[in-house]
Design goal:
This protein has 119 residues and is α+β, with helices and mostly antiparallel strands. Helix content is 60%, strand content 21%. It has one domain (3-117). The chain has a four-stranded antiparallel beta sheet with strand order 1-2-3-4. The longest helix has 21 residues, at 50-70. This is DUF4359 domain-containing protein.
Length: 119
């Protein structure tokens, strides 16, 4: 076989892998939830009272429900985009490709800014 034929076959295989490994909506939501949970776990302090820690954990539960209702995925067959909707405004916060979801660092910064602005 000629080199150009091999290149076309390899390119086709890569395309098929991208199509079949495009993350689902649930995988996108789970990625956002893991970021939220990581931030909550970091905010639970050993020096804080039990009531403060309980409040933080209840807030985490509320945040997970919010993520469940506000995170969506735009599917572009080969890849997908993670979106979050809030107050009738939608923003891209990440993308999914080859079975992975990559979230923007701005998501973590936004949660951390909200976290530190409370104190």
């Amino acid at each position: 076989m000629r080199k150009s034929n091999w290149a076309i076959i390899i390119f086709g295989v890569i395309i098929l892998i991208a199509v079949f490994t495009n993350p689902s909506t649930e995988e996108h939501k789970q990625a956002v939830k893991s970021v939220v949970n990581q931030i909550v776990q970091n905010s639970v302090s050993e020096n804080a009272s039990d009531m403060e820690n309980l409040g933080i954990l209840l807030g985490s539960s509320l945040a997970e429900k919010l993520v469940e209702n506000s995170v969506t995925r735009d599917n572009y067959i080969l890849f997908s985009i993670t979106k979050i909707s809030w107050k009738s405004e939608s923003r891209n916060i990440g993308y999914g490709l080859f079975g992975n979801v990559f979230l923007s660092e701005k998501v973590k910064e936004a949660f951390n800014d909200k976290e530190t602005s409370k104190y």
